[in-house]
Amino acid sequence: xxxxxxxxxxxxxxxxxxxxxxxxxxxxxxxxxxxxxxxxxxxxxxxxxxxxxxxxxxxxxxxxxxxxxxxxxxxxxxxxxxxxxxxxx
Length: 89
Hints:
5-stranded antiparallel β-sheet; elongated; mainly beta
């Protein structure tokens, strides 16, 4: 919660793909076939995008968590303590 990108579980990691048409698509891989990848591009809205494997020029694994930074900044001290107490159960 404090530093969400310090250690990202591989199942939540995103990747960026440079496609042959010049587009860059970033998302978490949620589906794989011999010819296509399905990426979750907007988890809040449930949006996905299918890309053809033969259209991928380059791929990069992202080292950033999909969890936004600064979430604790929106909480009061009391709310943070309550959250920590809940997580310790």
